[in-house]
Amino acid sequence: MTSKNLVLRTVYIDPEVDDLLRNEAFAGRTSKNDLFRKYLSLGMEAARKAAKPAAPDSAKADAAAVRKAAPKTKPAAGAAAKAR
Length: 84
Hints:
The chain is mainly α. The chain has helices at 15-28, 32-51, 56-69, 77-83. The chain has a domain at 14-51. Helices cover 65% and strands 0% of the residues. The radius of gyration is 26 Å and the shape is elongated.
């Protein structure tokens, strides 16, 4: 990736996170910057997926599963008499 494709930002991270990045970067023979960009992208993608409303088909399937799992109840005797 060339530097003209990047934007310079300054962020503050906990020393523990910096240590984890350093250790992983060393083990993977990459830079902390590359790891930081990778994890930032993954985190943003996960947040977008979590914020998306459920798809209509998925919502219908979820509702059907809830109805199927719900205990079957009989209407009260008074309710049956009122219905007649």
